[in-house]
Amino acid sequence: MDSVTFKPTTSLVKVGGWSLANKMQKKHPLEGTLASGEAKTIVMPKTVPLYNDGGTITLSNEANQKVDGVSYTKAQAKKEEGSWLVF
User: Fold this and answer.
1) Which of 10, 24, 71, 85 has the fewest CB neighbours in a 10 Å radius?
2) 42 pairs with which residues across the strands?
């Protein structure tokens, strides 16, 4: 099960209309808000896999502008199932 966890923020962030995309630009829409101090885990659907040979994860806002993104290597992706990659 692939997932992405957002670190706690210092203020409320409305993510409705935002999306997470994988290296193939397949997008998973986000809903709701991230409360101040809340860490939130998003389980990625099978239609938007995070690849085990390395890749990228891109966070885009409702205007489809990149807000943040990370890349990871094949070696990082091969870590034990359930382990965290911190960026």
Assistant:
1) 10
2) 4
Which residue matches tokens 């966070």?
A: 59
Candidates 2.130.10.10, 2.60.40.1260, 3.10.20.30, 3.40.140.10; CATH matching 3-76: 2.60.40.1260
Q: For the ranges 7-11, 25-29, 30-34, which has the lowest average pLDDT?
A: 7-11
Question: SS3 string of the chain?
Answer: CCEEEECCECCCEECCCCEEECCCCCEEECCCEECECCCEEEECCCCCCCCCCCEEEEEECCCCCEEEEEEECHHHHCCCCCCCCCC
Q: Has this prediction a pTM greater than 0.90?
A: no
Provide Rg for the chain, Cα atoms: 13
pLDDT of 43: 93
Paired tokens of 4 = 């992405």
